[in-house]
Each structure stands twice: as structure tokens, then as C-alpha cells.
């Protein structure tokens, strides 16, 4: 489903001559194709699943945010703006992110469900969070919250 959305968005961007969207979508589709080829090498003929596509998109957003920070430090506002526009394009395909309160509630719920009480349970908690909230949660922040609660 997400694959077809990406392809349709590329066609629409090409027709509308939206250059930033076209280049960003081509980058996404190229990265997706690379991951599909790698997955086929591991015996998965269908390529990567939707959760992995979402993870890939999140990683692309993180990379662009990191690049924005570097461009700001280097005094390159035009490149900061370009990265911000690329993030907008990528985020159109990501599900709505959980807010701080929602994330805290989800973490508490899973910790209670798994009866997590020590730092040894962190892996189980993070695994459950990634399984249920793929693409909707910032796992860097979630990891810090879980660690703090289990410490």
C-alpha cells in the first residue's frame, strides 16, 4: 500500500513539476529498491514489509534533521530550507506521531502489561513498543523514558 502511494505521489509530483518532491520521492524509491534487493538476498522474495519502509522513512527524516543542524552551524540557510522541504515530503507518508502524553501513556501501559521492573526488562519493553508503534513513536525519546522509569 505504501509502495503504491509513493509511486502515485511521484507521478503526481512529476505532472505538477514539483522539483523538491520529485527528487525526494526518487531518493525514497531508490532506497526502497536497495533494501528490497538486500532482502531478496536473504531469501525474502517480496522485499521489505511496510514496518521496515516506515523505519526507513523515519531514518531519512532523522538524517535530514541532522544535516539541518550542520547546515545551520555552517551558515547555509538555503540548504536548511531544502532539507526542511524534503522532510515535509517524507512526513506525508508517515503516520501521525504520538504526542508526549500519548507516548508516556503507551510506555506505562506496556511496562505494566509486561510487568517490567528492572533495567533487564528494557529490551522486552522496547521490542513491544517497536512492534505496536512502528512509525508513530520517536524511539530515541521512548528509550530514554523507559530507561528512566526502570532505573
Structure description:
The chain is mainly α. The chain folds into two domains: 2-91, Hypothetical Protein Yqey, Chain: A, domain1 (Orthogonal Bundle); 100-150, Orthogonal Bundle (Arc Repressor Mutant, subunit A). 76% of the residues lie in helices and 0% in strands. Helix 3 runs antiparallel to helix 4 (77-91). It is globular, with a radius of gyration of 18 Å. The mean pLDDT is 91.
What is shown here, in short?
76% of the residues lie in helices and 0% in strands. It has 151 residues and is mostly helical.
List keywords for this structure.
151 residues; mainly alpha; Hypothetical Protein Yqey, Chain: A, domain1; Arc Repressor Mutant, subunit A; 7 helices; 0% strand; globular
* Beginning-to-end CA distance, first to last residue: 40 Å
Structural class, by secondary structure, is mainly alpha
User: Strand content of the residues, in percent?
Assistant: under 5%
Task: Determine and state the CATH class of the largest domain.
Answer: Mainly Alpha
User: If classified by CATH, what would the architecture of the largest domain be?
Assistant: Orthogonal Bundle
Largest sheet: none
The CATH fourth-level homologous superfamily of the largest domain: Uncharacterised protein YqeY/AIM41, N-terminal domain
The H-and-E topology, N to C, reads as: HHHHHHH
Q: How would you sum up the global shape?
A: globular
Amino acid at each position: 500500500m505504501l509502495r503504491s502511494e509513493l509511486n502515485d505521489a511521484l507521478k503526481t509530483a512529476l505532472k505538477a513539476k514539483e522539483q523538491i518532491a520529485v527528487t525526494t520521492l526518487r531518493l525514497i524509491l531508490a532506497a526502497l529498491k536497495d533494501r528490497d534487493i538486500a532482502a531478496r538476498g536473504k531469501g525474502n522474495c517480496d522485499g521489505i514489509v511496510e514496518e521496515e519502509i516506515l523505519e526507513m522513512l523515519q531514518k531519512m527524516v532523522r538524517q535530514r534533521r541532522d544535516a539541518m543542524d550542520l547546515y545551520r552551524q555552517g551558515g547555509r540557510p538555503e540548504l536548511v530550507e531544502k532539507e526542511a522541504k524534503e522532510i515535509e515530503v517524507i512526513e506525508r507518508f508517515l503516520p501521525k506521531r504520538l504526542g508526549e502524553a500519548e507516548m508516556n501513556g503507551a510506555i506505562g501501559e506496556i511496562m505494566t502489561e509486561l510487568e517490567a521492573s528492572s533495567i533487564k526488562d528494557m529490551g522486552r519493553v522496547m521490542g513491544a513498543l517497536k512492534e505496536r508503534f512502528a512509525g508513530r513513536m520517536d524511539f530515541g525519546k521512548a528509550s530514554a523514558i523507559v530507561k528512566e522509569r526502570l532505573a
